[in-house]
């Protein structure tokens, strides 16, 4: 009979193996689902995982991986700090929207002035917007002990309403014939988050994503603050004895994740998206939660997880148009990835042993 | 510049290749909802199937459903163009700027954008005069309501939706001077949960007629559960909810247009055009008016329909004032297309604020 036994400390080997095993299990489970839908499972898996990287048109898809992955990575890096310390920011989607509105709002206000200072100011405002939005749950938690999960999540819906209001009112394109949506920032040189090298997919958001990964790694591994974050997550009591101020940690974790989410929103709205519009947010803030866990809350892990997630999106679209797979099947496939990861996680924290059946009378 | 030349080169190579391989015309469709939404996207997909049925082996279609409006749609369109699509239909308003962007990179691929206003040498726009159908709905709604409260589920406050509200209101008021409209904005084209919630709220506020400008059948189900409420099918017939609550419907019929445009690409006669057809041209259909509607109301609705069809009556005919009381259309004057396309105001009598 199988018996589950808790490990004294989580297994390092399984910590690394679990995500790989989860991806393989997803391929098998997903392949079975595709087969049931009457599609060739091997072809479907090949299209999703291989075609975006190595097919005839990979020169177009590879840069798209960066564009799709960058916001996920930026947001997930911020979230991972809080998640390590037990501070649960579920509202990155809202902070993403507010960051975008702050930055884009500034650009639209100064339009059509051209200046090299506009884009840097937008970046600062984007981070500030996300930071301030995250301060609402942070201050409510530290002052009144409210639950940051609920408050940050509810603020997503408030942010969505604000976004709708801005697209229909204040930020609406005056030359848009009454249709909702702002001017397109892609056509405003000073505010456009353009690709640094044309065709590379590398825009400032990708650069910031990379910086965030390195910065987070150094901080967690080398800096006292990183140590405090890890300590609080592993043993809140010990952290308190070690002199960690929990309120300051909450403010830091929510603030930094909010600022990073705000940055992601700003880079998206000034670049690939271009417009303040009702449908601007497409769920990066929520998907980033999956990315953070898929990457084991480790900065480099998150980078790989973000790219993997982007791969399933892009590969999934290619599979839809070339095989006629329904989009729901692709979503189920992505869901399987998280499901299997959580399942395989059992191996990290528990040993599975063969045990003799003992009958206790 | 480099990317552009690569893309153009690839597109050229592909068109050349597909031209020499087989004479198959590839047509791509980008959908905002799932093909099973039973409404807007469903009807576009029916038209895609009609294209396949009409041309058989000469055509190959591909589609991607539930594509968010924004950079994701741009990637989906590019992917289709790279795969050698000759013609791409982008079937939602929010695909406007992405369509223009992708079209600029693939000058040899033809694009057809639904319900927008930006055109290019290889981008046509097309839409249907749904407001003609709304006029008929409003007429029936005005007759049928006992509480004199008509609920309206709006998607987004864009001209197309506002036009529908105005057309329905004018014709409801024509037959029932006491009628009131209650409008709820769902801020989605397709979200059964939100749509059902909106319908329930309207019914609780006393509405016994619910009109919808969203794509799912959830409001129909909510009305059915509530009992004495009538609805109209949106985009698709939704006849499975007849004879009550669904008493009639607006049906989008894109098939003739899609077939004609595909034919034009095959013949090499495709040109960038702006099409806005209504009941007369068959792009807007009115679903069967069921037995739940009294015979005299049905007859007068059909008379209105006939006048819209033969063009003897325009759904926006004066006198009509704007909501703020200022004059818009004088007696006998009809609205021009420019004003209708950019309509951003309610007509007088609608007791609701435009959201902003």
Description:
The complex is a heterodimer of chains A (361) and B (356). Chain A is mainly α and 361 residues long. Chain A has one domain (40-324): ABC transporter involved in vitamin B12 uptake, BtuC, CATH 1.10.3470. Helix content of chain A is 70%, strand content 3%. Chain A has helices at residues 12-36, 41-49, 51-54, 58-85, 92-110, 118-144, 148-168, 204-222, 224-234, 236-241, 246-270, 284-294, 299-323, 327-344, 346-349; strands at 2-6, 350-354. Chain A has a two-stranded antiparallel ribbon with strand order 1-2. Chain A is globular. The model of chain A has no long low-confidence stretch (mean pLDDT 91). Chain B has 356 residues and is an alpha/beta fold. Chain B has two domains: 2-128, 3-Layer(aba) Sandwich (Rossmann fold); 131-252 and 284-341, Rossmann fold (3-Layer(aba) Sandwich). Helix content of chain B is 41%, strand content 19%. Chain B has helices at 2-21, 40-55, 71-82, 96-105, 130-144, 159-175, 192-204, 218-226, 255-267, 295-309, 337-341; strands spanning 25-30, 59-64, 87-90, 110-114, 123-128, 149-154, 180-185, 209-212, 230-233, 246-252, 274-277, 284-287, 320-321, 327-329. Chain B has a six-stranded parallel beta sheet with strand order 2-1-3-4-5-11, sandwiched between helices. In chain B, helix 8 (218-226) links the parallel strand 8 (209-212) and strand 9. The longest helix of chain B has 20 residues, at 2-21. The two termini of chain B are 39 Å apart. The model of chain B is unreliable at 12-21 (pLDDT under 50). Classes of the chains: A mainly alpha (361), B alpha/beta (356).
């Amino acid at each position: 009979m199988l018996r589950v036994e808790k490990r004294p400390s989580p297994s390092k080997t399984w910590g690394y193996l679990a995500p790989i095993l989860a991806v393989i299990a997803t391929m098998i489970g997903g392949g079975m689902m595709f087969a049931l839908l009457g599609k060739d499972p091997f072809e479907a898996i090949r299209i999703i995982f291989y075609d975006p990287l190595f097919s005839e048109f990979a020169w177009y898809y590879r840069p798209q991986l960066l564009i799709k992955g960058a916001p996920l990575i930026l947001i997930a890096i911020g979230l991972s700090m809080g998640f390590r310390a037990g501070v649960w920011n579920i509202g990155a989607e809202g902070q993403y929207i507010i960051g975008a509105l702050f930055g884009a709002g500034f650009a639209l206000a100064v339009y059509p002035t051209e200046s090299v200072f506009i884009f840097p100011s937008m970046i600062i405002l984007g981070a500030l917007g996300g930071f301030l939005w995250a301060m609402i749950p942070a201050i409510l938690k530290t002052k009144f002990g409210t639950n940051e999960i609920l408050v940050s999540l509810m603020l997503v819906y408030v942010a969505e309403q604000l976004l709708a209001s801005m697209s229909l009112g204040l930020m609406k394109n005056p030359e848009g014939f009454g249709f909702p949506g702002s001017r397109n920032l892609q056509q405003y040189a000073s505010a456009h988050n353009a690709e640094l090298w044309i065709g590379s997919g590398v825009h400032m958001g990708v650069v910031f994503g990379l910086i965030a990964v390195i910065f987070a790694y150094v901080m967690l591994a080398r800096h006292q603050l990183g140590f405090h974050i890890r300590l609080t997550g592993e043993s809140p009591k010990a952290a308190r004895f070690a002199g960690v101020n929990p309120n300051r940690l909450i403010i830091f974790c929510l603030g930094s994740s909010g600022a990073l989410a705000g940055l992601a929103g700003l880079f998206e709205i000034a670049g690939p998206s271009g417009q303040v519009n009702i449908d601007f947010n497409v769920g990066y803030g929520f998907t980033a939660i999956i990315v953070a866990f898929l990457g084991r809350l480790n900065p480099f892990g998150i980078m790989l997880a973000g790219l993997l997630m982007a791969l399933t999106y892009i590969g999934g679209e290619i599979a839809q148009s070339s095989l006629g797979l329904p989009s729901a099947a692709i979503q189920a496939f992505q869901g399987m990835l998280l499901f299997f990861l959580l399942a395989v996680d059992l191996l990290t924290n528990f040993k599975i042993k063969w045990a003799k059946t003992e009958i206790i009378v | 510049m480099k990317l552009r030349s690569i893309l153009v080169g690839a597109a050229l190579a592909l068109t050349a290749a597909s031209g020499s391989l087989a004479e198959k015309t590839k047509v791509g469709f980008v959908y905002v909802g799932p093909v099973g939404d039973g409404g807007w996207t469903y009807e576009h997909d029916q038209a895609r199937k009609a294209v396949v049925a009409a041309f058989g082996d000469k055509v190959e279609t591909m589609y991607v459903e539930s594509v968010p409006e924004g950079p994701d749609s741009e990637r989906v369109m590019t992917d289709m163009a790279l795969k050698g699509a000759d013609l791409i239909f982008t079937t939602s308003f929010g695909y406007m700027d992405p369509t223009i962007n992708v079209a600029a990179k693939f000058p040899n691929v033809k694009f057809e954008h639904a319900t927008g206003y930006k055109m290019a040498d290889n981008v046509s726009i097309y839409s249907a005069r749904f407001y003609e159908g709304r006029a008929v709905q409003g007429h029936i709604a005005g007759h049928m309501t006992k509480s004199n409260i008509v609920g309206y589920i709006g998607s987004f406050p864009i001209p197309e939706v506002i036009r529908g509200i105005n057309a329905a209101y004018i014709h409801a008021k024509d037959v029932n001077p006491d009628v009131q409209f209650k409008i709820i904005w769902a801020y989605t084209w397709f979200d059964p949960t939100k749509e059902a919630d909106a319908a329930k709220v309207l019914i609780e506020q006393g509405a016994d007629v619910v009109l919808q400008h969203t794509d799912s059948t959830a409001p129909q189900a909510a009305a059915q559960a509530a009992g004495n409420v009538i609805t109209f099918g949106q985009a698709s017939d939704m006849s499975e909810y007849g004879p009550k609550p669904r008493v009639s419907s607006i049906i989008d019929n894109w098939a003739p247009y899609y077939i004609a445009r595909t034919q034009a690409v095959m013949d090499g006669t495709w040109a960038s055009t702006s099409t806005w057809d209504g009941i007369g041209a068959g792009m807007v259909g009115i679903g069967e008016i069921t037995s739940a509607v009294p015979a005299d109301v049905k007859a007068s609705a059909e008379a209105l329909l006939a006048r819209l069809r033969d063009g003897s009556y325009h759904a926006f005919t004066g006198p009509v004032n704007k909501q703020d009381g200022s004059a818009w259309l004088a007696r006998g004057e009809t609205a021009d297309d420019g004003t209708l396309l950019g309509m951003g105001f309610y007509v007088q009598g609608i007791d609701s604020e435009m959201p902003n």
